Amino acid sequence: LLKPERDSPNSEPPKVTKAWSAAAKRIAQSRRDAPAYVEAAWYGTEAWWLRPAAYALAVSAGVTARLWTEPPKAASGSDAQAAEVSEERLSIKHVAAAKGALRRIELPFFATRAELQVRPESGIVMGGNFRAGALENLSNTIAVLEATISEELGFLVAVKLLRVEVEGPVASASTELSYEVFVMVPKVQTLDETSIAISLLSLAVCLACAAFLGASDMSQAAGAMLMPGSALPLAPLGGLLAVGQLARFLAARNLGAIWKPPIFLPSPQCGVLGGLSPETVAPSRTSAVAVALSGPLAMFAASSALMAFGTMVGSGNFIDLHSPLSAAWPLALLPTHCDALVWAGAQGFLMASMALLPHSPDGRVAVQSLLGRGAAFKIAEVFSYAYPILSLLSAYQNGAFWSFMPFWWAWLMINFASNEPPSPKEEVTEVPIGTSVVAYMSLIFAFLFAYPWPLHTLGSL
After folding, report:
1. What pLDDT, in 10s, does the model give residues 19-39?
2. Which residues pair with 338 in a beta bridge?
């Protein structure tokens, strides 16, 4: 076990800030004794509630500094090939070649038209006719089309089988579904130190915001839910975030998608509002909606357990809340002197609900899997404007702070969420009825919980 060099006996003991700064410096320098410095700083911090925030901030700052100062490594072998593939771009000159490659009768798809598409995903859209039985063996059909087009263009491509969405009046249930081939350059989806550092830095910001929520004048002015002098239960809240991300990781791993580190979202009203996970290409619509729902539903289940334990047994720790709470109506039902676990469960409900709003990434993926890409885009556009407008009406009727959280969420979505989620690998397979029912119920519950109006007061009117 390597130990950090000790100061001379006559020197003063290092302060906590100096200890964490020394740990971050050694992480940035890739020193072998960095873990020992982190351990010394951890146990040297007497405020236990400050340790997680200081740890995340030191590690993220050290990793970020190391990435900033290290020169890029030369790519070789498979890494060089992956980089070369990721730099290819499909252009108008590739359209005719891709279409010609699929004008062979023995292939599972015969192309009759092709055009270049820029948004929402860049690639070539090809319409045509599928051979009988081609849509019954999707993996083989996709593999044959990818190999044929890649050989013709001279570089690797990825193929998706997407449902044709007709604009205008809604088609009847008897209308036969049609599909098209979408050709794109495959993106290298790997975990990298930069995304990990950004995730850790956002976690440090959220923990710091949550730790000082009851002591910050700025948070109090912005409508913090805690009374001055109270402290959020950081351990249960951190556990809820971990449960949500673990569920998402396991769902993505089992269903063929790739998990990426999330960006955690701070809030001046309640400390933390959950995390945004970068969307990746899922194999099907069913797997896409399963991955999108996995995190919020797991957080909902864990929050229910916390609330039940806090209500029936109690944690022995309490926090003081402002009265009335003007952010989310279910939180206003809590007592002003609230058990810490009950509050953590209620905040977990809020984080899960915000994640499943139609203009949030997970909610948008769920709507897209159920109703289609066009409908999801329109619903997300409507909600991105309607949600803040509803909060303004609520603020006019019920108080100014009812408008803060929807506008803060809108700001977070604009700056940190992707514009449109990627389409799955294939949209031929239907979403099972059981999965659809769970998804619809989750979306409805999320909207009702996060509705910016004191619904609990309607019965007294």
Report:
1. 878 877 877 777 777 777 777
2. 319
What are the two backbone dihedrals, phi and then psi, of residue 371, each rounded to the nearest 5 degrees? -115, -10
Q: What are phi and psi of 108, to 5 degrees?
A: -70, -10
3-state DSSP assignment of residue 162 = strand
* pLDDT at position 207: 86
Q: Could you tell me the pTM of the whole model?
A: 0.78
**What pLDDT does residue 438 have?**
96
Do residues 128 and 135 touch, judged by C-beta distance below 8 A?
no
Q: What is the pLDDT of residues 360-374, one digit of tens each?
A: 999 999 999 999 988
Three-state SS sequence of 64-125? HHHHHHCCCCCCCCHHHHHHHHHHCCCCHHHHHHHHHHCCCCCCCEEEEEEEEECCCCCEEE
Asked whether 165 and 177 are in contact (CB, 8 A), the reply is no
Residue 392: CB atoms within 10 Å = 15
Residue in the block written with tokens 């720790």: 317
C-beta of residue 290 within 8 angstroms of C-beta of residue 251 = yes
- Contact indicator for 360, 413 with CB cutoff of 8 Å: yes
